[in-house]
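User: Second chain of the day. Same drill as before.
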Amino acid sequence: MVNISKNIWYWYHNVSECYYHVQLTVKYRKALLDNRAERIIIETLQGIKERYAIEISHLGFDQDHIHLLLRFLPTYSAGQVIKVVKSLTAKAIFTQLPEIKKDLWGGEFWTDGYYVATISGRGNKKVIENYIKNQGREQDIKQLRLFDLGT
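Assistant: Same format as last time:
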């Protein structure tokens, strides 16, 4: 069971505080996200939250793509979560709005690709970089500088 306290998820021996910004685009960039499609996506995402413990905190619609801010247990990869979201929302849309298939030539609802970025509750990339750089003993930090880590 997941215990959520102040945006931190505790799950067995794991602690998670990672959010994901995901953007999904309708196939062929077709402007198919009207009020009916939005309602179906919202209802489907509520079911995904309950079934898979994927929390969707924000959702934004444009005519041809959506943005989600979500988080999930560290037992899932971002690709796995996106696959679940895309497949279940597409299935629901095609079931409830079968006429949409004509606009997509009978094919898929979402494009094959997606955008995903991680977001920490502890700050931006620079804050995290500085936090990591200042960890450990001074001699350990000097030893690490011997290796070029691409920074």
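The first helix runs from residue 35 to 52.

User: Great, on to the next one.
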